[in-house]
Structures
1.
Amino acid sequence: MVNRDATRRWTKRLFDPLLGKRRVEQCGLRTYDLRRPGGRRRFHLRSNADGSAVLLIDATDAIHLNPTAALLARLAFDGVPVERAAAALRRQFRGVSAAQARSDAERIYALVERLTDATDRCPTCTITSAAEAMVKWQPPFSVPISAPYKADLALTYDCNNNCRHCYNQCPRPRAAARSAEPVGSPLKKLVSESSGATAGLSGSASGISPKHTAGQAGSGTLFQQAGGSSTLSTKQWYQVLDRLAAVGVPHIIYTGGEPTLFDSLPDLIRRAADLGLVSGLNTNGRRLSDAGYVESLRSAGLDHVQITLQSDDRAVHNAMCGAAAFDETVRGLKNSLAADLHAITNTTLTRRNIGQAGRLVDFLHDLGLTVFAMNGMIFAGGGLNCGDEIGVEELAPVLADVRDRAAQRRMRFLWYTPTEYCRLSPVELELGPRRCNAGEYSICIEPNGDVIPCQSYYVPVGNILRDSWPTIWESALFRRFRNRGADPRAAGLPAPCWECPDLPLCGGGCPLEQDHRRSVSTTARESKQAEMRQTEPSVHA
């Protein structure tokens, strides 16, 4: 049984104002920002209509709570003494005995106490035995949710790099984007109707590359960023943040293009912090080479930063980025670490840098990083035709080597790319489960406010400032993404996926890669048929 005196002491200790407790509430989203000896930890308690809730820890771990646990967790975080919490439980739920109410309250309070230990790198890995009896572990990706946990805000599609493998598409027509959602249509059809042709990236290697223009969404309009209205205004982005907080999205990632080219970025971070949201930044790191700019982001409330670093070799990195970026990027990484931001890197593995993947781990370790990420080619934009992609069969031994090097140096290696487990299983490689979370746990807001499933799947389902949240969340495309396991055929997955036992965890891999392989297969078949027709002898009457 939980020690009651210890529970009382913990309640006083945790919620002592001197420890910097801060609570922000936005409709069904409560934020608790706790600063305790050993560090800081942020919690988001997102309530559902039936009284259940999800508790998110530092925007990375989730615990789903039934109505009883949700009530008790809220009272624990609000600093209500355990005796009063037990009484509140009995008032709200009939038939609960005093002993049972007290026991349940003490267990949930003990669970919350364990989770608030800021010195524990994995708060959910070692839950106290007192709470374990109340915790039912669910398979990954198995609990339906009412809103994503994360929203990527593509503030601009301009960029001061010019990576030929970049997934940003330019130009692309906006016609038929929202109308192309007949139920049961394969995802490939939606992409072909809405995304348009892919063009090569343009612009100076040292200047800003105009990838898109965020014009008004509508029939026939284009993203052609450098010349017209490039993005929503700062005030409109405030409205976007307000809207996301209202529907319960706790985690914001500023991305692009290159988000540091958006002048009001510190103001957006500050607004998100006022709403109780966690802010992260995906960047090429070049502007972070200015330590003063890094401090402006940190002081505004930036929590973490991911910097793209393609190689430890200056020449390779610059060639892949299409710009002399290496020195600024590395300096930006060092400045981020010095500012005490949680900093990681991400690397796209291609034929240009795959031979240096292991060496990169050593380079990052020497810089002081403890976490880094890698991904394969994203088959959108320049990634469709650059020809540098690595087959999954070739990736497996490279990933195993990177994994082992990271473990030897006590680093954490994150693998981002969702793959078909029958071709490359991240679970078998001991990289953890990985599945496409587009339109479910994550969404992306484009520079004009359009909502798309992810940063590289350019099929808008609505506009965050004009359309209702139910219209966006229950759109046919988003439902197909979320229902792949229940109806893989309607989702456009190939026949081998339909009865595969790994489908709930795998999700069929990346939809963009599926579409790319189908397109390549169709093109090859059509070319072969054309060749055969040309070699057939002519028959004359």
2.
Amino acid sequence: MPPRRPGAPEGGAGHVISGGAGARGAGARGAGRCHGVQAERGEGDDRVTTVREDFGQGPDGTGEGQPGRPETETPRPQAPRRWRPTLAPLSGLVRRHWLFSLALAAAAVPRLVVMLGYRPAMLFRLDTFDYLWGAVHLSPNVINPSGYSLFLWLLLPFHSLVLIAALQHLLGLGVATMVYAVLRHYRLPAWGATLAAAPVLFDPEQIMIEHLIMADLLAMVLMVGSFAVLLFRDSPSLSRSATAGLMMGVATIVRPTVLPLVLLIPVYLLIRRVGWRRAGAALAAGALPVLGYMSWFAAVHGSFNMTNSNGLFLWSRTMSFADCSVIKPPPDLQALCPNAQPGPLARADPALRRLPKRYLWNHRIWAWQGTTSGFVPDTAAFTQANNERALRFAILAVKAQPVAYGRTIAAEFLTPFAHTDGTLRFPVVPPSSTALAPYNLRYAIGTIKAYTGSDQGVSRYLGYHFGVRVVHVPAVLMNVYQHLIYLPGPVFGLIVLTGLVGIIIPSRRSWPAILLWASAVIIMVLPTAEHEYTYRYVLPAVPLVCMAAALAFRKQDRKAAPGPALAGAAPAESGAVPAGPAGPPAPAGPAEPSAAAGPAEPPAATVPAGSPAPAGAAGSPAPNGPAVPAAPAGPAEPPAPDGPAVPAAPADPSAQDGPVSEGGPPSA
């Protein structure tokens, strides 16, 4: 190759060449690079030629424009454009997730029918009115935590039950969206993630709890949101861990059955080895709203607790199996025995006894003796003294009869899988207010008026179970829908079983699936263990078990496991040449043609261990062909005219699509 004239441009247009003095000697060779500047030394003269790639004039006039463009072609700075609202990002998102978008739009239709047919919302027994009363007269309730009342208090300025129902329907669709997003993050196909979200999208009983003025939907949103924040990154940051814990803590003051999950999240983080700081942040953030609420309750009612009802609820649970001849309670607890209860409640045979709620709300039992009911009914029995007394009996009963207690819980836990629930069905015939006692009816109407300013047209339609004004045509359509589309109990059981099998099989197991499945079981078992089975308590577990079951079918990582490599051999798939100690560079020469793919042959010569091996020497065979013999070492030459070759960057395993570390615990 003929020598280049010093100072002549090498790159044509867009390159500037400047010369200057300052050479150390004529024989120096090498190349240097500093901030995009390449220095060359001419042979036999004392000038230093600097070749600099001209980027043109940038927007700020500093000369850093587009690479390879002359200064005359550099675009002039544009005036700052004003932000204009556009639907382009949303439309792109819909196109990328078109299948779920169609399902989401279809799921909005039955919700719209419900909004038109059941006005202003579904009012559930006296619980709805307790929450509304707590929003108007902000105070912690002695029966249920008032977290949902705080949510209603935020919406109090609008005085609208319709707005509450509409927001809850949107939140329900948001739960389905979070299910889909988490599963897509774990590399499930779009159809699989959409299928897992289908029960939340289309189950009529899910739509019912969205239309109820009750705490269940808000607790579900916070719980699923907490898991979405936690699991949407394979190694959650400190802020994500704290946010997940905080959301679960807020869910606890809405529905206290999720309290164990506040502890489960830090345990999960410790198992995943993300650091004790993140686990501690999740625990502290989760405990903050719980302790804050308990302090508020103590300031109003005098006991550091969330309610004055946990002991009474657990006592009613023991009425399903308690035998005082086995328990042998002290004299001050004899009145709490099943045979000491009034009328038909005093059955000796546990199989013939009534449901636990019949014991709790019967005003002739021991807890209601000597109480008077004010404007707010069914609260006089829930005092700190009665709660502590009931809790003492319940603990004695569970200790004396643990097998009977476990058998009772297990029988009711299996109920939603063996039978399809029909308690949360939309009515076609409007309810009647004659089903309510006069003092309960007065409380219900007064509460609605206090929150909205009117009776909302439902004063004649406040039944024992539901209170709502029914519009005939949409109600008939919804009745047809709920008889065609629903989640059968055996199918629900199959989903739970699939999730269990997925965490048992080592190749299918993952820690996120274990967390979700265990959380679902906890929130299904705990209400039954504390009081009694109700399908309304089971519904928040549906999105969790659907995600756990879907994760059993997630796309597995196909990482090549490093096998035992021969000495001096390179991995055949990656094509990387093992690096040896740096030695003198081989003389520049023409590039070797690619060898035909075939089995690698052993090198002709090997370099003794510890001796420097020249670059490209024998002992490093080509990945797809025979080894190239080492070039003899000679005097060093300047680099080739085009500059030194830049080695290819090694593949980053963390850049793979999907979670890097999603494997489960090691198999036994």
3.
Amino acid sequence: MDEENQQPRARVSRSFIFSIIIVAAIIALIAFVIFSNISTATTITPDTLVQELYDGHVTEATITSGTNIVTVNGRTQTLDKDGQVVKDAKGNAKLYTFTVNVPITMFEQDIYWIDMNEDGNKDLDETVSVAWAVAYSLENYGPNSEAKTFTLKDSVDPYRTTWWEQWGPTIVLIAGSGLITLFLLSRMTSTVNSSNRQAMDFNRSRARKANSKVKFADVAGADEEKAEMQELVYYLKDPKKFTKFGAKLPKGVLLVGPPGCGKTLLAKAVAGEAGVPFFSISGSDFVEMFVGVGAGRVRDMFRIAKENAPCLVFIDEIDAVGRQRGAGLGGGNDEREQTLNQLLVEMDGFNDNSGIIVIAATNRDDVLDPALLRAGRFDRKITVSLPDRKGREAIFKVHSKNKKLDEDVNFENLAKRTVGFSGADIENIMNEAAILAVRANRESISVDDIDEAIDRRVAGPAKSSRSLTPHEKEMIAYHESGHAIIGLRYPHSNKVQKITIVPRGNTGGHVRMTPEDDRFTNSKSELIAEIVGYMGGRASEEIFCDDISNGASNDIQVATAIARAMVCEWGMSDLGPIQYERDTGSVFLGRDYTNTQKNFSIETATKIDNEIRKIIDFAHEEALRVIKENKDDVILLAKTLVEHEQITAEEIDYLMEHRHLKRDEKRAVVEPVDSVPEKDSIPAETTIEDKKE
């Protein structure tokens, strides 16, 4: 559809260039006619011309008559002050162009004196005319003479003028003026037609037509979703197979899921597998400032889709046009509501099994109009959720096909480290890893490159320029070690994948913890363990640093949010299974003015606060208990972090078993063993917790 919209603009551009060429040609023709008679020849007097003709210095002449003037143009030899002919380096006489204007009445009158004596004196009794001098020069120096140095060109009757000389310039000027007038009128007409055409094109669909080359093999981590979409492929390839048994496929399929999970990719794969035209458009492309434009574009889109059936129409971010009518802050929007009404009519208006399947994608299906979701329109909803561990492993393999990886890269381990990542996140991670490998001038992508790319995706690039004081670095190390020890020792906790004290974004460090397996639900024990993990950093600061910092602000915020949800939404407290709060979404998305709906009294609010405090206090006490019971492990983790700044899951397991990292064994080979101080010989002032003791 876009190609059709662009064709008029291309024609206008070509016609404009052609018009410029025509105007330039007309101007050049008029200029040639006007300036063709302008000459750079030297003007001489008639008596000089007569003398030059008599002396034989003139080599050629052309006589042209006008109304009152006879013009003689030609070339003659150049003379010096002594009257001698000037010659060039080759010995040839130098010539110059001349012009002479003689009145017609004086052209044949003997009124010009010439020197006819050999001694150089004029004979006062001898006068000649210009016509006599021309005839004399032609007789004595012309082609029939012995000298043959004079040529008379295009000699005409001096008393007659040609028809072109009299009327030619006038005809050219009139014709040129007429052509310019016709051109301006045609341009004016084309401009008006173009404006009318653009006004009509404003209602045309903005859907882009393309033949998709994406296949289902390019989509990983969505096996169940692909199985659902496979029916659409069969229908597009052989619709008669379904109509034979009276089966009808959904007129609309709604893909719902978080951003980056492959909703658009699935729609392209359906079109690519079926080999049918693929029309894609965004929901915002329908809405304009003029009322009625969106409805017109919807009508035009379905008209073109019917002409290209069987085909696939994909509407991305349909919530931009399909929100609930007349809801939200400020009421409804006439243009958007008319567009939605037209979309409802078109989806429930075209014939069944016409070969058109509409697929729409959105992240917010809760704000869509109920009429859009009813049976007969978008009557099938497919949830495209975040990929599980096997799905992430398959996505890593898909996005690593054209990349050179080290042999020790294990996709299964990478999938375990990236719980909660979408397909778009994994694609970005592999691309960032490739960039990091190029930046380091490596031959292939290593595990460290991928691990760094994961950290960059989670918390941003490392702040290598940010300098931490030894006190800050040690406090951050104990803070992160407190988080990690909860994950290592507390039941139902997530697995610690990495600990780092390298500053990233607004954080001084972080602990990456992921579930052992993908979870669809969380039990109360798991949620309590998660809150205990968030409180581990603050508890570690209290035990080892004899002080607390604001580094736990985000930990406290998240822990409080989980505890409040447990009490008010999930019924995991002594208040019982009652929902006191409900998230209603944003007011600008067709919801209530407040984000949460509260259904409790002031007395109940006090009880809710007490239950939240009870959960937080319990988690804090548990974190203090676990850290005190595993104090040596926390100290070991903190010292290792201060020295190495980051530790991976494999290194943490090795450290807990052997009490040192495997990479430290290489230094032990070079450095004598007895030079390494024993644990008991470490000076007391080296750690904060020792100072406290």
